[in-house]
Amino acid sequence: MLSGGFDSIGKSLIYIGLIIAVIGLILHFGGKYMNFGRLPGDIRIEKENFGFNFPIVSSIILSIVLTIILNLFTRR
Prior knowledge:
The chain has 2 helices and 2 strands; from the N terminus they run αββα. It has helices spanning 4-34, 56-74; strands at 43-46, 51-54. A two-stranded antiparallel sheet has the order 1-2.
């Protein structure tokens, strides 16, 4: 029926969907407590008619978490 290529793509899509669902649940239910995007070290400049937000620390933390998760799922 299905060759091995489609089977592995299906598993990868399921894992990616589960990861996105977990991240969505964390952001939805934990958004009040985490202040993600406004961590110490994130750059935020607000003027009267101008706003700039560069969440560098949040991006680094998100990168570390995604690296750990992807290493767990892709390790053989």
